[in-house]
Design a protein that fits this description.
It holds the Pfam family MMR_HSR1. By secondary structure, the protein is of the alpha/beta class. It has six helices and 14 strands. It has a six-stranded mixed β-sheet with strand order 10-11-9-12-13-14, with helices on both faces. The protein has a five-stranded mixed β-sheet with strand order 3-1-8-5-6, with no helix packed on it. Strands 4-2-7 form a three-stranded mixed β-sheet, with no helix packed on it. Strand 5 (about 95-100) and strand 6 form a beta hairpin. The termini are far apart. It binds guanosine-5'-triphosphate and magnesium ion.
Length: about 375
Amino acid sequence: MVWISRICYRKYGNFVDNLRLYVRGGTGGMGLPRLGGHGGKGGDVWVTAQDGITLKKIKDQYPHRRFVAGAGANSSIRALKGGKGADVEVFAPPGIVVTTDDGVVIGELNAKGEKVLVAQGGQGGAHYCNFLPSKGKARQIRLDLKLIADVGLVGFPNAGKSSLLSTLSHAKPQIGSYPFTTLRPEIGKVMYDDFRQVSVADLPGLIEGAHVNKGMGHKFLKHVERTKQLLFVVDICGFQLSNKSPFRSAFETIQLLTKELELYREELLSKPALLVVNKMDLPETEMLLQELLDQLENQDDYKSLPEDLIPKSALHFSHVVPVSAATGLGIEELKARIRESLDAQVASQTEQETTRRIEELRRPRPPPTARSRGPRPSA
Ligand SMILES: Nc1nc2c(ncn2[C@@H]2O[C@H](COP(=O)(O)OP(=O)(O)OP(=O)(O)O)[C@@H](O)[C@H]2O)c(=O)[nH]1
Ligand SMILES: [Mg+2]
């Protein structure tokens, strides 16, 4: 176990999903009171989304993590209007939320080319400020990476999430017979015959008590905040972390996962969810599957877990798909269900938007006021 945890630490050390930076806008240039000249504005600092960048690269490339824009040029006899200071652009991967140190969101970068102003340059000296320039804004900011994928895999360790991703897509995540094989999120693309692609994020396994920092899955839950749907993956044979911990049946693992999501952020449970029941190639799993389906149908009758581990409301899955990531059984069916569920979500969102717009148009408008009626025609 010590060996595993050491490896975990080393490997996890390679993956950076948040970074703190110091940013400062450039100081404005001096004005020239004698001739009424204006100093140039200080440069700004921007964070810009670009492909092929990782937070790890930023960390390695800029060990001091300080980004200071150029100062505005002073006003002079030869150039009364001083030039603007040079802007600084920090390139970051798409999927970044930029916040202040206190967690206030400054902006989000969801697609390549989007940019957020993080530190504005100071004003150049001018007549209204006695020709004295102001300093640029200086602050600490945080870049917080939250993956953007269509579907996020949620499951206990060893359930076969990574095996499933490697069967569904061309991704090659690490697979192992010990818990916590996956130490960093990985995205795979599921390809369909009509060239449609669906991105699926494999995440480290969650364990019960993750919300009190057990295991390491909880810190990765932020990566499912932005996925459109959740794909619960359970081992039909259940899960047991060690001899000392209790055995949990497939149904109990679903309840525990739901509870962990609820404790992390309840809104996550409003996302459409599918359930994948994995390892159906193992003997006697048909019987276990029937039992699980029955438990899912009559959730209130099965209360084997302590009360505080049972989620407030049961999760309802749009589809339950038995598969074997090892043999490929049920994988085509799963691909079809994922697609169906995503399409249904888009259709329902479009419908909601249309209804909202129609209602807005139907809403009675207030009678025009005298002012908005325009000038009265002269008699
Ligand atoms: N028999 C059988 N074994 C499977 C199946 N899918 C995965 N496994 C095995 O289960 C073990 C765990 O698989 P992983 O894909 O690493 O599981 P995971 O959910 O990604 O685990 P973590 O990354 O630790 O959270 C491996 O030994 C796999 O070979 C399956 O469908 N049938
Ligand atoms: Mg894994």
